[in-house]
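FYI - complex with adenosine-5'-diphosphate-glucose, inputs then prediction.
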Amino acid sequence: MEPAVRRLVVVSNRLPAALRQEGGEWRIKAGGGGLVTALAPVLRNRGGMWIGWAGLSDQTAEVDDLLAKFSAEAGYELSTVPLTQDEVDGYYFGFSNEVIWPLFHDLQTRCRFDARYWRMYLDVNFKFAEVVARQTTQDDYVWIQDYHLMHQAFFLKSMGVKRKTGFFLHIPFPPPDIFMKLPWRWKLIQALTEFDLVGFQTIQDRRNFTGSLQRLMPEAKVRGRGSVVTVDMGNRTFRVGAFPISIDYNQFAQIAERPEVAREAFNIKEALRHRKIILGVDRLDYTKGIPERIRSIQTLLRRYPDLMGRFNFIQIAVPSREEVDEYKDLRVEIEQLVGRVNGEFSFPGWVPVHYHYRNFPPDQLVAYYSAADTALVTPLRDGMNLVAKEYCACNVTEDEVLVLSEFAGAAAQLQRDAYLVNPYDMEGVAKALHRVLHWDKEERRRHMTRLRDQVRKNNIYWWVDSFLQAGISKRLDDFPAGETMTYERG
Ligand code: ADQ
């Protein structure tokens, strides 16, 4: 029988709080992005803890106070791992974002394989592991998140610290031919075998991982079938599974049903004179395929001039990694493309592409999801893509269409009812858009109803349950919620 697990401890690069200075004063708010969206409801009021970096190289008492206040409101403990600027540069901007991020998204030509990055990545992982060792006990389940922290179990074990560990990779795992290009491939894959459970977004990612593992460590034998399998390393075993992450479906659907959000959605439609709306929503990142998407819109208008003036494409891009040159260049490229397409096709009273470069509050984002007739979710490669699922949850009228990249993890679950496209094939995307813009109500409803059913059933709580079940034979409800619990299970 499994020993009792007392607490759930999440470890990620960033704490789920974003700090910024305004007029000399620090302010704090809940962080954005897929990871926080997914995990904050899981820890709330269940006696959990979140360990991570606060996002600053110089943490003052004022910041500590803000974090303590945030923690009290969030309903779980926070524990910070302080990092210096050099550490952030080497481990975060360097190894995580210039090596692993592009490599794991199959974009190896963007990688900078710098040995200094690798050393700093190891140093910082060791530092994280020291905090994890100090802040946790053998009764905790330590759930490590994402590609920044792949060496946690390895360092905990090398310190002689026994913990039950699970690791979840939010981004894809590349095919063996691409993974093999990593100069530190053996050490990295060996470190992953030290977790008790390694989770991926899709079965294909899991296969890519076991494929690379068997090439590099031929003693590894994979046993079992289904979404979770066992890997036998000779002297020990660990488990590997596919756990497609999801969203809090009910929360999105409920926001979409609120009268003020429905009104805002109507206002958006009215401002665009009830033309069809095609929507893109992404972090501004080169994996999301935003330039290719805008070119697809250009192709759509060139091939089908009858569509002139009959739809608007709205691209919402949330600023991301703004300090990095590559991201600055991408922003310029997107802005130029928007200008070019609008310059080519606008006429009095109609501008085809609307572009917003900012963070949107949840209500406003949901209003856009509800107003849109078609979501165009076309990453070049994506671990999952929560936007695709959020869009379905918000379509309470079930009268909309999801056009989805076949290279998003979400395609594995949604392929039957999303219209799948290859984001590199701009003619193909244009054709797909032309076709779905002409779908009748019945066809739209048939597909959207099934998409929503799929996301509702396989929601974020299902994701947590399936991971915990595989990791420690427990479910989320086994970590009892306190009286102040503020949300309901979906
Ligand atoms: P991300 O790459 O951040 O996540 P995604 O899954 O699409 O990608 O999540 C983005 C989140 O940001 C969504 O929750 C969305 O609502 C929010 N967002 C986007 N634009 C916004 C805006 N302008 N204003 C406010 N919020 C906005 C990583 C992986 C993904 C994986 C997730 C979860 O890259 O593949 O799905 O983690 O595992």
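Residues 32-35, 37-38, 170-171, 245, 281, 283, 316, 318, 359-360, 365, 382-387, 390 surround adenosine-5'-diphosphate-glucose (CB under 6 Å). The first helix runs from residue 34 to 43.
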